[in-house]
Structure formats: C-alpha cells, structure tokens
Amino acid sequence: MGAGARATAAALLLVAAALAGVAAGGDIVHQDDDAPKIPGCSNDFMLVKVQTWVKNRETDEFVGVGARFGPIIESKEKHANRTGLLIAEPFDCCTPLKEKVAGEVLLVQRGDCKFTTKAKVAEDAGASAIIILNNRHELYKMVCDQNETDLDINIPAVLLPKDAGTILQGLLSLGKVSVQLYSPDRPLVDTAEVFLWLMAVGTILGASYWSAWSAREALIEQEKLLKDGHESSVNIEAEGSTGMVDITMTSAMLFIVVASLFLVMLYKLMSHWFVELLVVIFCIGGVEGLQTCLVALLSRWFKPAARSFVKVPFFGAVSYLTLAVCPFCIVFAVLWAVYRRMPYAWIGQDVLGIALIVTVIQIVRIPNLKVGSVLLGCSFLYDIFWVFISKMLFHESVMIVVARGDNTDEDGVPMLLKIPRMFDPWGGYSIIGFGDILLPGLLVAFALRYDWAARKTLQSGYFLWSMVAYGSGLLITYVALNLMDGHGQPALLYIVPFTLGTFISLGKKRGELRNLWMKGQPPRVCTHSHHPLKDSADSASHVISS
Description:
Blueprint: H1 3-18, E1 47-54, E2 57-66, E3 82-87, E4 105-109, H2 115-124, E5 129-133, E6 157-160, H3 162-172, E7 177-182, H4 191-227, H5 233-240, E8 245-246, H6 249-269, H7 272-298, H8 303-307, E9 309-312, E10 316-319, H9 320-338, H10 345-363, E11 364-365, H11 369-394, H12 398-404, E12 416-420, E13 429-433, H13 435-453, H14 463-483, H15 492-509, H16 513-518, H17 532-545
Parallel strand pairs: 3-4, 4-5, 5-6, 8-11
Antiparallel strand pairs: 1-2, 1-7, 2-6, 3-7, 9-10, 12-13
Transmembrane segments: 194-212, 247-267, 273-302, 314-338, 344-364, 371-389, 426-450, 462-481, 487-506
Subcellular location: Endosome membrane
Signal peptide: 1-25
C-alpha cells in the first residue's frame, strides 16, 4: 500500500463518519409528528398512489400522502374506483364552488384556508375525493387544529408535491383525465433489508479476514528475519506494518470533530454541482479500492506479474498486475458515473463501495480496545446528535437530508450501499451509510487479528461474538426502522452498544480486558532476543577463568 492508498483510506473514513447515521431514509418529509389525534382526525399517515389516465390511456403515477381526517383510503388496486379529475373553481377551494360536481375528484391548491375547510367545501360540492397540490416539492402531513370540532368529513384527501401538480395540470390540458387513489400495504418483511444485512455482515467478514491475514503474513515475515539473525527489530517491525495506518487516541477524537464540520459543509453546500464533486471523489476512491482488491485476489494466480515492478511518474514502483487491472477499474467507475441514474446502477455503486470499505479496513487499524472504544463511543454520540438533536438547531435532520441528497436531482449521495425494494409496491431503496459498516468493522477486524495472534479457537476468541453482536445490532436497527414508520435511524445507536459491549464484557469475564485495553495484542515471549546482562556475565566469567 502506498501513500495514495493511505490518503484514500483517510478520506473515506471522513466521509464514512459523515454518513455514519444513515440506516435508511424515510419516504416522506416527516413533519407534525407531535400533532395530536382527536376524534374525527386520527388516521395514520399513509402514502397514496395516484394513477392517471388521459382519454382512457394510462399515463403517469404519482405518490402523495393521506390526511389525518377523512375515511381510510382503499388498499387494493382492484377495488379502487377510477374517477374523473376536475380543477376546482376557485382553485384554492376555500369558498363554495361555482358549480356542483358529480362524484369527480377535485384538484385544488394549498393555501388561504385549512385543509379541513377545503375537504368540507369539496364534499359539499359533490366531490368523491380531493387532491391538494403542495406549494413545495416535498410532501407535508395534513393535520387538524386542536380546537376543531366539526370534523365529519367523508371524502379522502391526498396531498401531492408541487412538481406532480404541475404535470397533472398539463395532463388536464390534453383532454379528459381520470385518476385512481389507493394505498397498497407494504410487505411485512422487506427483502431488500435482508440482502442489505447480508451485504453489510459479509463485507465486514471478508475485510476482517483480509486484515488478519495481512497481519499474520507480516508477523511470519518478521519471525523469519529474526531467525536469520537480524538485530534491528524496531526497523523490522516498522517494515512489517508498511502501508498500515494505526488510529491514535487523539486522531480518534479529532476525527469526529472534523467529520462534523464536513457534514455541515455537505449540508450547507448541497447542490447539483456539489453532488457531482462527491461522485468524482467516490469514483477515485472506488478505483483505488477495486484495484487493491482485484490485485490481491489475482496475485495468487499471476505471481510473476504481481512481483515485477516498473517505475511510473508520480506513482513510483507499480506492479505489472496493477497496470493491467487499473484500466478496467477506471472504465468500471466511469461507466457507473455516466449511467448512475439507470435502474441497475446500484450494482456498480455497491461494488465500488464494498471494495472501498474492504480496502480501508485492511489499511486502517485499531491498535487496542481503548482506541476502539473512544472511536466508536464518539461515533455513537455523533450519530445521535446529527440524526435527532440537529433538528432543534436546523429544523430538520442534517444527516438524513445529506443522505437523501435534498435540493439536488440525485437519488442521494453516492457514499451509501443500497438495494432496491423489488417486492415493495412503493419501490424505492433500502440504504445504509458507509460508516455503519466501516467503523464497527474496524473493531471486528481488530478482534480477529487478536484471536489469530493469541491462537484462539473460533468459540474461545472474540471475533465470532463480535460478528454476532454486529449482526444483531444491525438487525435491531431495521426492526426499529419499521416500528418507527420509516423514520431514518442512527444505526450506530444500536450497533455500538451491541458490538463494544460484547467485546468489553467478554474481555472482563476472561481476565484479558487490561491487555486488550492497553496493548491490543497477546503477551508473547520472544525466544530469539539476547539477554544483555547474562551475556556480559558469561563473558566476564570466561575472561577470569582464562
């Protein structure tokens, strides 16, 4: 690993921490969460599909949100009625309409009066439902005032975002428009979350074994040199860890501060051009990660090419195998960047992301449990602050806004792993931030390195139980996500107590906590080192006797 790889690792760690708290984003902008339920206004907020037809020809489908008031919207598409759509006159629907309607759905504009007033006026005019167009591009929850009493509303109300309203008005200019309103149920188990869980656990598993294998190879090489009689053990140890970066206590604490500043910068500068810049940075890191992984895999079959080097300007000595693999990695990343808005672009994003995470876990190391506890503990607090507490300062969750890529036309920032919800009628993606895999992964990799160095079995070591703890913590995250009705969850809120708590508890129970905490490696007796006092005494004895 060269300086470029180490710089890439540090940069990715920064971005990973900035997006540590994103386990999944909600489908709508959640507002009025504290609005009380009162008689006649107690519906759960539900997403609603609005399918359209122009002159009996199926066209666009939009997604809105149902109101607290009114009847429950039909969940089965086959049972939902197809009804004509009309624009209300007046458009705000705050005063009685100029003409009665015969069961059509009314399209009205938000503003000038309460949502409930609009629904009552539409119902009095004979409408079967009301579609309210928001004056902003996101959705908003329609609630009732606490002092409202006349809430006998018998038609459903749906709010659509501003851009959907613009399209609908354009369709109405083409001829007769019909709409169908229904709210299909989500599946009980999201298969995308199952695969995302497997992807996250598998990434840490593979990265940990690679990290432990590299450490063991370095140790074997060091022991060979000692057996050959080399004296400069300090230099040998340094050479054995070439390319690796050990996190210190200071860097672990400063890291979260810098990550916070970076997150605020992302939040304030979030725009189309800034996301494009993040895409470029992600591609550079992805090329480095994919190249490192491929070279490590292929070097077993192409040893001569992996061991033969050539000097390249600005890069130094580069193996022929790296030169052969690099063009493929560059083309792969460029193709993903160009076609990242295509339906299957998530595959390329996940490949680049996993390769990058695996590479960083192999390069960056936690030297002991003390540093790991500080790093994960700070990340734990950081995660909670930027997902939950930041709402008090910025009036929205900074972490979730950045992850979704608000104020851009992108489907979120690229520093995420995601899988489409293929069996969900609502579609969308289940996502997880890099930090939710990478930061706990550093601790799990440390556990496996320690187990191998101490020659522990799988059951008597720390790696197996750390993996179980991480998987359990991530599983609880997804359970909480579903219980919280799709609100984005800070995954480290659940993962850190499980993973770190398990490690510390096992260490204390086995009497190894002090060694894990301070040294991070098992006690080892070096049989090849010389004893200076003993050698001097033997020499003096030899001189006297002679």
